[in-house]
Amino acid sequence: MTSQHYIPPLNFGLVEEDLYRSGQPNELNFPYLERLGLKTVVFLAPEEPNQKFLNFIDDQEIQLYHLGSNSTSAWDHISEEIVLEALDLILKPENYPLIVMCNLGRHRTGTVIGCLRKLQRWNLTSIFEEYRRYAGPKVRLLNEQFIELFDTDLVRIPPQYVKWL
Q: What is the CB neighbour count within 10 angstroms for residue 98?
């Protein structure tokens, strides 16, 4: 009898109940993700997800939203438009369980989650501590500035929104 090992993706974390964050998973992570029962993936990287991951999403009947595809390079900063699109998906309970990801789960994912935390009225010290925990030594000050200056009044709160907001 073989035991099943469950390996979370790079930079995996629980954001809120049924809301997760990570880097792009590989096939070793699929059994772990399968146990989450995901309904939605919000993919923020400019590149297409790898084919094995696309096959996994298709097999699991998970809805993929590739929001980063209009960026011209991986070094582009995430736009306000993409952050607002991502938050619109995150705030709708019918999309849950949901995971937000980019290639490494650091900068684009960290910026979206940071803006969500601002919407939840976290203080900036706590928001930046969480961002830095996932970014490691690769902190981008422009992302922190983006989060600090992000105007939460631009976010459209749906009539039926997640209970933790």
A: 26
